[in-house]
Design a protein that fits this description.
By secondary structure, this protein is an alpha/beta fold. It contains 18 helices and 14 strands. It folds into 3 domains: 104 residues, ATPase, nucleotide binding domain (Nucleotidyltransferase, domain 5, 2-Layer Sandwich); 163 residues, Nucleotidyltransferase, domain 5, CATH 3.30.420; 139 residues, Hypothetical protein af1432. The protein has a 6-stranded mixed β-sheet with strand order 8-7-6-9-11-10, with helices on both faces. It has a 5-stranded mixed β-sheet with strand order 3-2-1-4-5, with helices on both faces. Helix 4 packs across helix 10 and helix 14 runs antiparallel to helix 15.
């Protein structure tokens, strides 16, 4: 069910939000506000950066491409003064997914941006694209949505607001330009090679997509928009101004007749798109041929709109990440009862130290979700199950999560049990800084507290940060399992020390059993001597 933003608005009318899409061909900025339940853009910027063109044969991003990207982001940031960081998302797609030195660019970019870059997986990109399209072009039809980007092309079959199938294929207008039109010549041979290359990619998903079926096709992105504009200007679109397969074939012949990228002068093809336009047309032609698509409707909604609607869902407590967590627990038959106990204790510990450790609400959400999922690796094997949990979380396609989010959760999985290693401290810091280190330690304590997997009431746990790199946990002697937990916690002292944290475990004074028994007897006598029943205050256990 879609979220009703009209009756339950997560933002007031004067509040802005923004999305930056770091694409393989162009970077996009959209600033919007919520207007009667719809995202209304108030600022829209787009710059051709061609990040994917800066990748060499070893997928190393060139310094020049990095600088183009950084310069563009600096210009975008200058427009974000009116938008608080918590209402901004920055997503990166295929070029940074492929770049082996992506972290170099990201570390430099994050110093410019008010919010860190999220590299999203191909299927997550597809989900967000569908979210943008489905809100921009509402329909109850089962639809095939396609988006031809610079480095990849996304395919989604969905109905209303729900994606049913998502896929991302390694073909795009920039990458295919480099591969088939690098010399700038537009020949029949180049087109045939490009179409053949795209055809092989699409055939891999054709069976599943045909089996699911669709009743209409929607296209988004610059390539689709440019093709539609040309076909409309030439009279090659249908009466509803839809892209037709016949029109695309005519456009291919026209481009071959033009012969050179520099000579493209077509209404609807902007100057910055000319170089990659023939490759985009070749990909579109192959897709329509293999999938048997005759007409395509253009949608202005795409990734950045989807990112903003996804943000609205998070603001409205309808976060797809939580649905993904529940789906993973179900898929791997996780012990929900145990998970909920660990979640509750991890949250309790977090709240006690969050201010001292400068932890945020995002950190709290990350810890909570990791606590829910810490045992999913048991579905593979009990031996080293924490490693299996980490692998599943890092390499699965999980709707709503960026690759960085998944890596952070994987680190929480790797370090929530067994011995801590000094080299893992460095790795954890690189992925998530000191905050991720603290979350790992908090999860360890929460998991340890429920090591016995029983229903007993935990001793009261008080966690304090008493000094820099010095923690103190105090146990109240209120449970028969107190001694077992106390012993377990003391074994953690050496483990915490390996990560530079001095952990001290403190016992609270216990009430002697004999003293309790004496008090019980005295009260019983007093009650028996009284003519009328009296309420007796219960002693602390």
């Amino acid at each position: 069910m879609p979220i009703d933003y009209l009756t339950n608005p997560p933002l007031s009318d004067d509040e802005m939000m923004a999305a930056i899409d770091i694409g393989s061909n162009s970077f996009h900025l959209a600033i919007a506000r919520l207007d009667h339940g719809e995202v209304r853009k108030v600022v829209s910027m787009s710059e051709k950066v061609q990040l994917a063109a800066g990748l060499d044969e070893n997928n190393i991003l060139s310094a020049a491409a990095e600088q183009r990207g950084l310069d563009c982001l600096s210009r975008f940031v200058a427009r974000l003064d009116s938008v608080p960081p918590e209402r901004i998302r920055v997503v990166a797609t295929n070029a940074l997914r492929q770049a082996k030195n992506a972290n170099d660019f990201i570390s430099r970019a994050n110093k410019i941006l008010p919010k860190p870059i999220e590299i999203i997986a191909g299927r997550e990109e597809a989900r967000l694209i569908y979210l943008g399209v489905s809100h921009t072009n509402e329909s109850s039809d089962k639809r095939l949505v396609m988006d031809i980007g610079g480095g990849s092309t996304e395919f989604i079959i969905g109905q209303e607001f729900d994606p049913l199938l998502t896929e991302s294929l390694q073909m795009g207008c920039v990458s295919f330009t480099q591969k088939f039109f690098a010399d700038g010549l537009i020949t029949k041979e180049a087109f045939n090679s490009a179409i053949s290359g795209a055809r092989k990619e699409v055939l891999a998903i054709n069976g599943r997509y045909q089996k699911t079926g669709w009743s209409s096709v929607v296209g988004s992105s610059g390539t689709i928009k440019a093709v539609r504009n040309v076909l409309v200007s030439k009279g090659w679109a249908d009466e509803q101004e839809r892209i037709t397969y016949k029109g695309v074939k005519k456009l291919e012949k026209l481009l071959i007749k033009i012969g050179n990228i520099d000579d493209i002068e077509l209404e609807g093809v902007k100057e910055h798109r000319k170089a990659v336009f023939p490759a985009g047309v070749a990909v579109l032609r192959a897709v329509m041929k293999v999938l048997g698509v005759e007409t395509i409707i253009y949608s202005d909604g795409a990734l950045r709109e989807g990112v903003m609607y996804d943000m609205l869902g998070r603001f409205a407590s309808e976060d797809v990440r939580d649905r993904s967590v529940l789906a993973l627990i179900k898929r791997y038959s996780g012990d929900k009862k145990q998970a909920k106990q660990v979640v509750k204790t991890s949250r309790y510990l977090f709240e006690q130290v969050k201010d001292k450790l400068t932890l945020t609400n995002d950190d709290c959400d990350l810890l909570r979700r990791a606590a829910f999922l810490h045992e999913i690796g048991l579905a593979i094997s009990h031996s080293s199950y924490h490693k299996h949990s980490a692998y599943l979380l890092e390499y699965s396609d999980i709707p709503g999560f960026s690759q960085v989010d998944q890596k952070r959760m994987a680190q929480l999985m790797l370090n929530h049990r067994r011995k801590l290693k000094a080299d893992m401290l460095e790795q954890t810091c690189q992925i998530g800084g000191d905050q991720l280190v603290y979350l790992c330690l908090l999860l360890r304590l929460a998991v340890l507290a429920h090591h016995s997997r029983s229903d007993y009431e935990l001793p009261e746990l008080e966690l304090k940060v008493v000094a820099e790199n010095s923690w103190q946990i105090t146990l109240a002697d209120s449970s028969e399992h107190y001694a077992f937990l106390l012993a377990d916690l003391r074994t953690e002292i050496d483990q915490f020390a390996k990560w530079g944290i001095k952990l001290s475990v403190v016992e609270t004074p216990a009430v002697e059993a004999q003293e309790i028994e004496t008090q019980d007897v005295d009260m019983q006598k007093a009650a028996a001597m009284s003519a009328e029943p009296q309420e007796i205050e219960q002693l602390p256990l």
